[in-house]
Amino acid sequence: MHIKIAKSKEDATHISELAHHIWHEHYPSIITEEQINYMLSKFQSADTIYDEIKSGTTYLMAFKNQSFVGYSAFYKKNNELFLSKLYIDPAYHKQGIGKQLFAEVTQFAKAHGLSSIRLFVNKYNTNSIEAYKKMGFIIEKALITDVGSGFIMDDYTMTFAL
């Protein structure tokens, strides 16, 4: 497996395309199709991703056998790292790709002297919650966030101590 840092508009486009594939496969049992489309357009569009890259969010792209199979996004916030995205193509689940991406994220956080890694995960995304627990995350609290257009994110905040 190979991991690279996303830098270009082309990288952002590839990430957005993979996000659409993953969200339409993974989330229909968790949120409505309407909310999936809204979330993709607001948070996972190529323009949004590229703007985040230019503003200092680090996107890592994971490749297996030269196929783009997953990505993560994170940024420093106060004394911790916020892991805003960690997505793997479902066809490549349970192959250690998420663990390898998370290892890179952890290495970055430690190198910058941060105390913890924080993320939000939908309360009903049980497979992801279990995967995060196996990595060492703990559920800290429940959080409901208004994301606009009548949609909310009904999440858990999970933390990983460094």
From TrEMBL:
Signal peptide: none annotated. Gene3D superfamilies: 3.40.630.30. The keyword Transferase applies. SUPFAM superfamilies: Acyl-CoA N-acyltransferases (Nat). InterPro entries: AcTrfase_GNAT_prd (IPR017255), Acyl_CoA_acyltransferase (IPR016181), GNAT_dom (IPR000182), MshD_Acetyltransferase (IPR050276). Residues 13-162 form the N-acetyltransferase domain. It holds the Pfam family Acetyltransf_1. Coiled coil: none annotated. The keyword Transferase applies. Keywords: Transferase. This is GNAT family N-acetyltransferase.
